[in-house]
Amino acid sequence: MTSLASKALPPHYYFDPEVFLYEKEKIFKSNWLFAGTQSAVNQHNDFVTFDVLGYPILIQNIHDEIQAFINICSHRKCKIQLKERGNRPLVCPYHNWSYGIDGKLKGIPKNSTDFEIDTQTKRDLSLKKVYLERCGNFLFINLSKPKIGLRAYLGNFFEILEDLSFSFPEQVKTGSYNWSANWKLAIETVLEVYHVPGTHPDTFSKIADDSCEVLLEKCHNSGHSDLHLEPKKWWGFIRKKLKLPQHKVYTEYNHFFIYPNLAIGITNGTLLSVQTYLPDGVNSCTLTFSLSLTKKSQNTQSGKDTPKSLTALKKAAISNFCNFNHATLEEDREMAEACHKNLLFADTSGILGKCEERISHFHRSWRQDVL
Fold first, then answer.
1. Domains of the chain, CATH where assigned
2. What is the pLDDT of residues 69-111, one digit of tens each?
3. Per-residue DSSP letters for 291-345?
Protein backbone atom coordinates (compact mmCIF):
# COMPACT_ATOMS: atom_id res chain seq x y z
CA MET A 1 0.00 0.00 0.00
CA THR A 2 1.37 3.44 -0.93
CA SER A 3 1.67 6.30 1.54
CA LEU A 4 -1.39 8.08 0.06
CA ALA A 5 -3.74 5.11 -0.30
CA SER A 6 -5.46 3.20 2.50
CA LYS A 7 -7.81 0.24 2.84
CA ALA A 8 -11.57 0.58 3.11
CA LEU A 9 -13.63 -1.51 5.51
CA PRO A 10 -13.52 -5.26 4.82
CA PRO A 11 -16.38 -6.41 2.56
CA HIS A 12 -18.18 -8.52 5.20
CA TYR A 13 -18.68 -5.44 7.39
CA TYR A 14 -21.29 -4.35 4.85
CA PHE A 15 -23.45 -7.49 4.93
CA ASP A 16 -22.69 -9.42 8.12
CA PRO A 17 -25.86 -9.54 10.35
CA GLU A 18 -23.72 -9.72 13.48
CA VAL A 19 -21.86 -6.55 12.51
CA PHE A 20 -25.21 -4.87 11.91
CA LEU A 21 -26.35 -5.75 15.44
CA TYR A 22 -23.24 -4.03 16.79
CA GLU A 23 -24.00 -0.99 14.61
CA LYS A 24 -27.50 -0.74 16.04
CA GLU A 25 -26.24 -0.77 19.62
CA LYS A 26 -22.92 1.05 19.32
CA ILE A 27 -23.80 3.64 16.68
CA PHE A 28 -27.50 4.32 16.27
CA LYS A 29 -28.48 3.83 19.91
CA SER A 30 -25.45 5.69 21.25
CA ASN A 31 -24.94 8.79 19.09
CA TRP A 32 -26.95 11.94 18.46
CA LEU A 33 -29.25 11.50 15.44
CA PHE A 34 -30.86 14.25 13.37
CA ALA A 35 -34.62 14.26 13.98
CA GLY A 36 -36.01 17.16 11.93
CA THR A 37 -36.73 20.80 12.67
CA GLN A 38 -38.42 22.68 15.47
CA SER A 39 -40.46 24.62 12.91
CA ALA A 40 -42.29 21.36 12.14
CA VAL A 41 -43.66 21.32 15.70
CA ASN A 42 -44.01 25.03 16.47
CA GLN A 43 -47.56 24.99 17.84
CA HIS A 44 -49.01 23.34 20.94
CA ASN A 45 -49.93 19.71 20.12
CA ASP A 46 -47.96 19.67 16.84
CA PHE A 47 -46.23 16.32 16.39
CA VAL A 48 -44.07 14.30 14.02
CA THR A 49 -43.39 10.56 14.08
CA PHE A 50 -40.78 8.31 12.46
CA ASP A 51 -38.98 5.05 13.08
CA VAL A 52 -35.31 4.56 13.94
CA LEU A 53 -34.32 0.91 13.47
CA GLY A 54 -37.82 -0.18 14.48
CA TYR A 55 -38.11 2.20 17.44
CA PRO A 56 -41.27 4.31 16.96
CA ILE A 57 -40.27 7.89 17.77
CA LEU A 58 -42.69 10.71 18.61
CA ILE A 59 -41.72 14.36 18.88
CA GLN A 60 -44.50 16.53 20.30
CA ASN A 61 -45.02 20.15 21.28
CA ILE A 62 -46.65 20.23 24.70
CA HIS A 63 -47.40 23.80 25.74
CA ASP A 64 -44.32 25.05 23.82
CA GLU A 65 -42.03 22.36 25.22
CA ILE A 66 -40.60 20.13 22.48
CA GLN A 67 -40.21 16.60 23.85
CA ALA A 68 -39.47 13.19 22.37
CA PHE A 69 -40.89 9.82 23.40
CA ILE A 70 -41.15 6.22 22.33
CA ASN A 71 -44.51 6.30 20.56
CA ILE A 72 -46.09 3.46 22.58
CA CYS A 73 -49.03 3.79 24.98
CA SER A 74 -48.44 2.19 28.39
CA HIS A 75 -51.88 0.56 28.35
CA ARG A 76 -52.15 -1.85 25.41
CA LYS A 77 -49.10 -0.66 23.42
CA CYS A 78 -50.89 1.14 20.59
CA LYS A 79 -49.12 4.05 18.93
CA ILE A 80 -50.28 7.31 20.48
CA GLN A 81 -49.90 9.26 17.25
CA LEU A 82 -50.72 7.20 14.17
CA LYS A 83 -49.92 9.75 11.45
CA GLU A 84 -46.49 11.01 10.34
CA ARG A 85 -47.37 14.56 11.37
CA GLY A 86 -50.33 16.52 12.65
CA ASN A 87 -51.81 18.39 15.58
CA ARG A 88 -53.63 16.53 18.33
CA PRO A 89 -53.18 16.01 22.09
CA LEU A 90 -50.98 13.29 23.55
CA VAL A 91 -53.92 10.90 23.80
CA CYS A 92 -53.92 7.27 22.72
CA PRO A 93 -56.57 6.78 19.99
CA TYR A 94 -57.34 3.22 21.17
CA HIS A 95 -58.68 3.77 24.70
CA ASN A 96 -58.10 7.50 25.30
CA TRP A 97 -55.36 7.22 27.88
CA SER A 98 -53.88 10.73 28.00
CA TYR A 99 -50.40 12.05 28.79
CA GLY A 100 -48.84 15.42 29.57
CA ILE A 101 -45.46 17.09 30.07
CA ASP A 102 -42.61 14.57 30.40
CA GLY A 103 -44.99 11.85 29.21
CA LYS A 104 -46.71 11.64 32.59
CA LEU A 105 -49.93 9.65 32.55
CA LYS A 106 -52.78 12.10 33.20
CA GLY A 107 -56.05 10.39 32.43
CA ILE A 108 -57.45 6.83 32.46
CA PRO A 109 -61.09 6.42 31.47
CA LYS A 110 -63.00 4.43 34.13
CA ASN A 111 -59.96 4.33 36.37
CA SER A 112 -61.98 4.38 39.62
CA THR A 113 -64.26 1.51 38.58
CA ASP A 114 -62.02 -0.71 36.47
CA PHE A 115 -58.34 -0.07 37.27
CA GLU A 116 -57.81 1.79 40.57
CA ILE A 117 -54.35 2.87 39.44
CA ASP A 118 -52.85 5.14 42.09
CA THR A 119 -50.65 8.22 41.66
CA GLN A 120 -47.32 6.39 42.06
CA THR A 121 -48.32 3.72 39.54
CA LYS A 122 -49.35 6.46 37.12
CA ARG A 123 -45.84 7.87 37.39
CA ASP A 124 -44.43 4.43 36.63
CA LEU A 125 -46.65 4.27 33.54
CA SER A 126 -45.25 7.48 32.02
CA LEU A 127 -44.18 7.33 28.41
CA LYS A 128 -40.54 6.45 27.84
CA LYS A 129 -38.72 9.70 27.08
CA VAL A 130 -36.09 10.04 24.41
CA TYR A 131 -33.24 12.50 24.92
CA LEU A 132 -33.70 15.54 22.71
CA GLU A 133 -31.52 18.63 22.20
CA ARG A 134 -31.59 21.52 19.75
CA CYS A 135 -29.02 23.09 17.50
CA GLY A 136 -30.83 26.21 16.37
CA ASN A 137 -33.88 25.00 14.45
CA PHE A 138 -32.45 21.49 14.10
CA LEU A 139 -33.55 18.74 16.50
CA PHE A 140 -31.39 15.79 17.51
CA ILE A 141 -32.33 12.74 19.57
CA ASN A 142 -30.37 10.09 21.43
CA LEU A 143 -31.87 6.69 22.18
CA SER A 144 -29.54 6.17 25.14
CA LYS A 145 -28.30 8.41 27.91
CA PRO A 146 -25.85 10.66 26.02
CA LYS A 147 -22.16 10.35 26.80
CA ILE A 148 -21.81 14.05 25.94
CA GLY A 149 -24.22 16.87 25.12
CA LEU A 150 -25.06 17.84 21.55
CA ARG A 151 -22.89 20.97 21.54
CA ALA A 152 -19.83 18.98 22.60
CA TYR A 153 -20.70 16.22 20.13
CA LEU A 154 -20.86 18.61 17.17
CA GLY A 155 -17.79 20.57 18.26
CA ASN A 156 -16.97 23.49 15.96
CA PHE A 157 -19.79 22.43 13.64
CA PHE A 158 -22.45 23.33 16.23
CA GLU A 159 -22.48 27.05 15.43
CA ILE A 160 -22.31 26.34 11.68
CA LEU A 161 -25.37 24.08 11.83
CA GLU A 162 -27.14 26.53 14.12
CA ASP A 163 -26.66 29.27 11.54
CA LEU A 164 -27.70 27.06 8.61
CA SER A 165 -30.83 25.89 10.45
CA PHE A 166 -32.17 29.47 10.55
CA SER A 167 -30.84 30.68 7.18
CA PHE A 168 -32.95 28.41 4.94
CA PRO A 169 -36.47 28.50 6.40
CA GLU A 170 -38.55 27.92 3.25
CA GLN A 171 -38.85 24.17 2.82
CA VAL A 172 -39.96 23.44 -0.74
CA LYS A 173 -39.55 19.67 -1.10
CA THR A 174 -39.30 16.57 1.08
CA GLY A 175 -39.14 12.91 0.16
CA SER A 176 -37.48 9.57 0.67
CA TYR A 177 -35.88 6.77 -1.34
CA ASN A 178 -35.32 3.12 -0.53
CA TRP A 179 -31.90 1.85 -1.57
CA SER A 180 -30.98 -1.83 -1.83
CA ALA A 181 -27.57 -1.14 -0.33
CA ASN A 182 -25.97 -1.07 3.07
CA TRP A 183 -26.31 2.33 4.74
CA LYS A 184 -22.53 2.86 4.81
CA LEU A 185 -22.28 2.46 1.03
CA ALA A 186 -25.06 5.03 0.61
CA ILE A 187 -23.24 7.54 2.80
CA GLU A 188 -19.96 6.96 0.99
CA THR A 189 -21.52 8.28 -2.24
CA VAL A 190 -21.67 11.79 -0.75
CA LEU A 191 -18.27 11.79 0.94
CA GLU A 192 -16.12 12.27 -2.15
CA VAL A 193 -16.26 14.03 -5.53
CA TYR A 194 -13.80 11.63 -7.17
CA HIS A 195 -16.78 9.75 -8.62
CA VAL A 196 -18.39 12.83 -10.14
CA PRO A 197 -16.96 12.60 -13.70
CA GLY A 198 -17.88 8.91 -14.00
CA THR A 199 -21.20 8.81 -12.15
CA HIS A 200 -22.60 12.31 -12.77
CA PRO A 201 -21.34 13.40 -16.23
CA ASP A 202 -24.60 15.19 -17.08
CA THR A 203 -25.62 16.36 -13.60
CA PHE A 204 -23.15 17.29 -10.86
CA SER A 205 -20.23 17.53 -13.31
CA LYS A 206 -22.06 20.41 -14.98
CA ILE A 207 -22.19 22.54 -11.84
CA ALA A 208 -19.10 21.93 -9.67
CA ASP A 209 -15.44 20.95 -9.71
CA ASP A 210 -14.41 17.39 -8.94
CA SER A 211 -11.93 18.61 -6.34
CA CYS A 212 -12.67 19.21 -2.69
CA GLU A 213 -11.29 21.14 0.29
CA VAL A 214 -11.67 18.83 3.29
CA LEU A 215 -11.94 19.62 6.98
CA LEU A 216 -12.09 16.94 9.70
CA GLU A 217 -13.87 17.81 12.95
CA LYS A 218 -14.11 15.12 15.66
CA CYS A 219 -16.09 12.27 14.03
CA HIS A 220 -17.60 14.64 11.46
CA ASN A 221 -16.17 16.25 8.33
CA SER A 222 -16.83 18.76 5.57
CA GLY A 223 -15.93 19.12 1.92
CA HIS A 224 -16.19 22.24 -0.21
CA SER A 225 -16.07 22.39 -4.02
CA ASP A 226 -16.05 25.43 -6.30
CA LEU A 227 -19.10 25.95 -8.47
CA HIS A 228 -18.80 26.62 -12.18
CA LEU A 229 -19.66 30.05 -13.53
CA GLU A 230 -22.92 29.10 -15.27
CA PRO A 231 -24.74 27.74 -12.18
CA LYS A 232 -23.58 30.80 -10.25
CA LYS A 233 -25.16 33.01 -12.91
CA TRP A 234 -28.37 30.95 -12.81
CA TRP A 235 -28.66 31.16 -9.03
CA GLY A 236 -27.82 34.88 -9.15
CA PHE A 237 -30.70 35.41 -11.56
CA ILE A 238 -33.09 33.43 -9.35
CA ARG A 239 -32.08 35.38 -6.25
CA LYS A 240 -32.49 38.72 -8.00
CA LYS A 241 -35.94 37.91 -9.37
CA LEU A 242 -37.29 36.28 -6.22
CA LYS A 243 -35.47 38.68 -3.87
CA LEU A 244 -33.73 35.86 -2.05
CA PRO A 245 -30.65 36.65 0.02
CA GLN A 246 -27.44 34.67 -0.39
CA HIS A 247 -25.71 33.10 2.58
CA LYS A 248 -22.69 35.25 3.37
CA VAL A 249 -20.22 32.41 3.96
CA TYR A 250 -21.22 29.32 1.98
CA THR A 251 -21.46 30.49 -1.62
CA GLU A 252 -19.96 27.54 -3.53
CA TYR A 253 -20.98 23.90 -3.08
CA ASN A 254 -20.43 23.37 0.64
CA HIS A 255 -21.04 20.00 2.23
CA PHE A 256 -21.07 18.83 5.86
CA PHE A 257 -21.28 15.28 7.17
CA ILE A 258 -22.44 14.79 10.75
CA TYR A 259 -21.66 11.30 11.97
CA PRO A 260 -23.26 8.85 11.79
CA ASN A 261 -25.81 9.57 9.03
CA LEU A 262 -26.55 13.25 8.33
CA ALA A 263 -25.42 15.02 5.15
CA ILE A 264 -26.01 18.75 4.59
CA GLY A 265 -25.27 20.51 1.30
CA ILE A 266 -25.48 24.21 0.42
CA THR A 267 -25.57 25.34 -3.20
CA ASN A 268 -24.41 28.89 -3.94
CA GLY A 269 -25.72 30.11 -0.57
CA THR A 270 -29.32 29.72 -1.75
CA LEU A 271 -30.40 26.09 -1.51
CA LEU A 272 -30.03 23.79 1.51
CA SER A 273 -30.20 20.01 1.15
CA VAL A 274 -30.57 17.87 4.30
CA GLN A 275 -30.27 14.09 3.92
CA THR A 276 -30.30 11.23 6.41
CA TYR A 277 -29.48 7.59 5.77
CA LEU A 278 -31.15 5.07 8.10
CA PRO A 279 -30.61 1.32 7.73
CA ASP A 280 -33.73 -0.79 7.27
CA GLY A 281 -31.57 -3.87 7.69
CA VAL A 282 -28.13 -4.98 6.69
CA ASN A 283 -28.98 -4.95 2.96
CA SER A 284 -31.08 -1.80 2.58
CA CYS A 285 -31.54 1.74 3.82
CA THR A 286 -33.88 4.71 3.53
CA LEU A 287 -32.62 8.08 2.36
CA THR A 288 -34.81 10.94 3.58
CA PHE A 289 -34.27 14.44 2.20
CA SER A 290 -35.52 18.01 2.36
CA LEU A 291 -34.73 21.00 0.17
CA SER A 292 -35.06 24.57 1.50
CA LEU A 293 -34.45 28.10 0.24
CA THR A 294 -33.13 31.18 1.98
CA LYS A 295 -35.57 33.55 3.62
CA LYS A 296 -37.37 35.98 1.36
CA SER A 297 -36.70 39.66 1.85
CA GLN A 298 -39.36 41.53 3.82
CA ASN A 299 -40.29 43.67 0.83
CA THR A 300 -40.91 40.63 -1.35
CA GLN A 301 -44.50 40.41 -2.55
CA SER A 302 -46.31 37.27 -1.49
CA GLY A 303 -49.62 35.52 -1.72
CA LYS A 304 -52.23 36.71 -4.20
CA ASP A 305 -50.32 39.93 -4.89
CA THR A 306 -47.28 38.09 -6.24
CA PRO A 307 -47.00 38.68 -10.02
CA LYS A 308 -47.91 35.58 -11.99
CA SER A 309 -44.59 35.71 -13.81
CA LEU A 310 -42.65 35.45 -10.54
CA THR A 311 -44.89 32.65 -9.29
CA ALA A 312 -44.23 30.76 -12.52
CA LEU A 313 -40.50 31.46 -12.28
CA LYS A 314 -40.36 30.17 -8.72
CA LYS A 315 -42.24 27.00 -9.66
CA ALA A 316 -39.91 26.46 -12.60
CA ALA A 317 -36.81 27.01 -10.46
CA ILE A 318 -38.04 24.60 -7.78
CA SER A 319 -38.89 22.02 -10.44
CA ASN A 320 -35.42 22.47 -11.94
CA PHE A 321 -33.40 21.81 -8.80
CA CYS A 322 -35.78 19.11 -7.52
CA ASN A 323 -35.35 17.21 -10.78
CA PHE A 324 -31.59 17.72 -10.52
CA ASN A 325 -31.62 16.37 -6.96
CA HIS A 326 -33.63 13.33 -8.02
CA ALA A 327 -31.37 12.56 -10.99
CA THR A 328 -28.19 12.86 -8.90
CA LEU A 329 -29.53 10.64 -6.12
CA GLU A 330 -30.66 8.03 -8.63
CA GLU A 331 -27.18 7.95 -10.13
CA ASP A 332 -25.67 7.48 -6.68
CA ARG A 333 -28.21 4.78 -5.82
CA GLU A 334 -27.29 2.79 -8.91
CA MET A 335 -23.60 2.82 -7.94
CA ALA A 336 -24.23 1.98 -4.27
CA GLU A 337 -26.51 -0.93 -5.15
CA ALA A 338 -24.01 -2.30 -7.69
CA CYS A 339 -21.22 -2.17 -5.08
CA HIS A 340 -23.40 -3.85 -2.47
CA LYS A 341 -24.10 -6.82 -4.75
CA ASN A 342 -20.42 -7.23 -5.59
CA LEU A 343 -19.21 -7.05 -1.99
CA LEU A 344 -20.79 -10.45 -1.38
CA PHE A 345 -18.19 -11.93 -3.72
CA ALA A 346 -15.20 -9.75 -2.83
CA ASP A 347 -12.42 -11.14 -0.65
CA THR A 348 -10.31 -7.98 -0.28
CA SER A 349 -11.02 -4.47 0.98
CA GLY A 350 -11.47 -1.55 -1.40
CA ILE A 351 -8.76 1.05 -1.88
CA LEU A 352 -9.22 4.67 -0.79
CA GLY A 353 -7.12 7.49 -2.21
CA LYS A 354 -6.37 10.88 -0.70
CA CYS A 355 -9.34 12.21 -2.67
CA GLU A 356 -11.50 9.87 -0.56
CA GLU A 357 -10.17 10.94 2.85
CA ARG A 358 -13.66 11.82 4.09
CA ILE A 359 -14.60 8.15 3.65
CA SER A 360 -11.42 7.10 5.45
CA HIS A 361 -12.36 9.43 8.30
CA PHE A 362 -15.91 8.02 8.38
CA HIS A 363 -14.45 4.50 8.56
CA ARG A 364 -12.16 5.48 11.45
CA SER A 365 -15.15 6.85 13.36
CA TRP A 366 -17.10 3.67 12.58
CA ARG A 367 -14.25 1.46 13.80
CA GLN A 368 -13.96 3.46 17.00
CA ASP A 369 -17.62 2.81 17.75
CA VAL A 370 -18.01 -0.78 16.62
CA LEU A 371 -14.69 -2.61 16.93
1. 33-145 (2.102.10.10), 163-370 (3.90.380.10)
2. 999 999 999 999 999 999 999 999 999 999 999 999 999 999 9
3. EEEPPPPTT---GGGS-HHHHHHHHHHHHHHHHHHHHHHHHHHHHHHHHHHHHTT
